[in-house]
Specification:
295 residues, D-Maltodextrin-Binding Protein, domain 2, Fructose-1,6-Bisphosphatase, Chain A, domain 1, eight-stranded mixed β-sheet, five-stranded mixed β-sheet, 33% helix, 22% strand, globular, disordered N terminus, binds D-MYO-inositol-1-phosphate, binds calcium ion
């Protein structure tokens, strides 16, 4: 979808909530889609046959490539041009405080390890949030996740539903936990991964099966369209979560943390509400939010 970025520029607010009105939110969704698609084209067309690791971050197996940086740079330029008063938070270091109360939360490549190895599941994730760019306090207004290799694009706007390539999405309503196909992911620190493996021994015997596809943003969108029944992961960053969680929620998913907390870094659980309640109980019993070093 192509859009005029200035359509979302004025940001009129609805008086009762201080949030942008529906038309503005719809324009923000279209802009998020354009941004994710344009950055996705850069990532796709610029991928060399052999991708080099430019640097590592939280651990030796947490890579950054030149394309992570180039994609974020492109997103930063485009957002500054289209929405100069908005802030921006990005995985590769963008941290711009805006004056409008809105912040773009972007992951220039979600699934960098897949990008590195040429495994087809990686995406550009773009969301815009009202309030601080913190999953416990933000209101996600709009988001887009663009799967780079095959071009699938999921978008959502708050209160306006979720689509994949224009088709409306609804989550599955499985009858029991034991029938659920569950997506998850693992962090980059060895100690965190050891604990996630321990938790998995509680979950795996009680569900249909597990998928670890390597992009949290795509996982949440697959959940939204019924290709997964449930999803849980510890250690997500705001940019992993913002757009995908809105797509899932707008497709009817409950998206939450453990012990009454909102979804966020400590834990994110998503799916049909009754099954999420069961998985939350299981994860709480397993101490999935207990002490574990690293991310
Ligand atoms: C990672 C992916 C992965 C998830 C990790 C994330 P990155 O993001 O979303 O699926 O398991 O928790 O950090 O590092 O590829 O942007
Ligand atoms: Ca990333």
């Amino acid at each position: 979808m192509s859009t005029d970025p200035t359509a979302a520029a004025a940001t009129p607010t609805s008086p009762s909530t201080d949030l942008p009105d529906d038309a503005t939110v719809a324009a923000l969704r279209a802009l998020a889609e354009d941004l994710a698609t344009e950055a996705g084209a850069l990532v796709r067309d610029g991928r060399p046959d052999r991708v080099e690791v430019a640097a590592t971050k939280s651990s030796a197996v947490d890579p950054v490539t030149e394309m992570d940086r180039a994609s974020e740079e492109l997103l930063r330029e485009r957002i500054a041009a289209a929405r100069p008063d908005d802030g921006m938070l990005g995985e590769e270091g963008s941290d711009v405080a805006g004056t409008s109360g809105l912040t773009w939360v972007v992951d220039p490549i979600d699934g960098t390890v897949n990008y590195l190895y040429g495994v087809a599941s990686y995406a550009v994730s773009v969301a815009v949030v009202a309030g601080p760019p913190d999953p416990a306090r933000w209101t996600v207004l709009a988001g887009a996740v663009h799967s780079v290799v095959d071009g699938r694009t999921w978008t959502a706007a708050r209160g306006q539903g979720a689509t994949r390539d224009g088709r409306p999405l609804r989550v599955n309503q499985p009858a029991e936990l034991g029938a659920c196909l569950v997506g998850t992911g693992f962090g980059y620190a060895a100690s965190r991964r050891a604990d996630q493996a321990r938790v998995l021994t509680h979950v795996l015997p009680r569900v249909r099966d597990i998928r670890r596809l390597g992009s949290a943003a795509i996982d949440l969108c697959l959940l939204a369209e019924g290709s997964l029944d449930l999803y849980y992961e510890r250690g997500l960053n705001p940019w992993d979560l913002a757009a995908g969680a809105l797509v899932a929620a707008e497709a009817g998913a409950a998206v939450t943390g453990l012990r009454g907390e909102p979804a966020g870094s400590t834990m994110t659980v998503a799916g049909a509400a009754p099954r999420v309640a069961e998985l939350v109980r299981l994860l709480e019993e397993a101490g999935a939010d207990g002490p574990a070093e690293g991310r």
